[in-house]
Amino acid sequence: MMDRTMFGLSPDKGTSVLMRHADWMFLDRVLASKPEWTNLVETGTFYGLTSLYLGVIAKLRGGQLHTFDNIDQRKREIVEAWPDCVHFDHEDILEASKGEVMRWLHKPYTFAFFDNGHKAGEVCMYAKWLTVGSGFIVHDCGLEWEERDILYPLKAYHFEPFMQEEGLELGTSCRAFVRQA
Fold first, then answer.
1. What's the confidence (pLDDT) of residue 63?
2. How many Cβ atoms are within 10 Å of 143's Cβ, its own excluded?
3. What mean pLDDT, rounded, does the chain reach?
4. Nearest residue to 173 (alpha-carbon basis) of 20, 8, 6
5. What is the secondary structure of 65-125 as a DSSP string?
6. Are the beta carbons of 176 and 163 closer than 8 angstroms?
7. Which of 16, 29, 149, 175 could form a disulfide with 5 if both were Cys (CB 3.0 to 4.6 A apart)?
8. 173 with 143: CB under 8 angstroms?
């Protein structure tokens, strides 16, 4: 069965390397179930396609998206389509732990999409800054990280799996978590 991948080509392989159809469906379901999440944060901007999607969500909710990457690979035609509530920050988030990313994660009603080069490191470094009721999705489970890699911050900061059954049924490589009191 052919993988239904959407958006983008790998510069070196010529095949799609970004979000698969199941990942988009899961991201959409999680965000639809949490309309109070108006402050969105993305790590790993890459070409900016997921930023475009998250930016539209933020705009519809009257919120903002702050997207972070240490290399600016954004495509001009994609950035031109970004809503005015999308802000790109050129920052190495694993080196700049006191930078802008922490400032935006600490706001109430935040949703984070961890999709940079070291997903488990991002969760370990930044999940603790999310407030109660906020949540995050980590992309590429089983491909770049395993759930055991993030057990400590999940338990230490009271995060519970969110919509896990739906995600497994869809076959997504995304995992969602929400911070509890």
1. 98
2. 9
3. 90
4. 20
5. EEEEESS----HHHHTTS-TTEEEEE--TTT-TTSHHHHHHTSSSEEEEE-SS-HHHHHHH
6. yes
7. 16
8. yes
Q: Percent of the chain at pLDDT above 90?
A: 80
Characterize 31-60 residue by residue with b for buried, 16 or more Cβ atoms within 10 angstroms of its Cβ, and e for exposed. beebeebbbbbbbbbbbbbbbbbbbbbbbe
Kindly state the helix (H) or strand (E) to which residue 57 belongs, with its residue range. Answer: helix 49-61
CB neighbours of 5 closer than 8 A, spacing ≥ 6? 15, 16, 17, 18, 19, 20, 21
Instruction: Give the length of the chain.
Output: 181
Residues 23-64 pLDDT 10s: 999 999 999 999 999 999 999 999 999 999 999 999 999 999
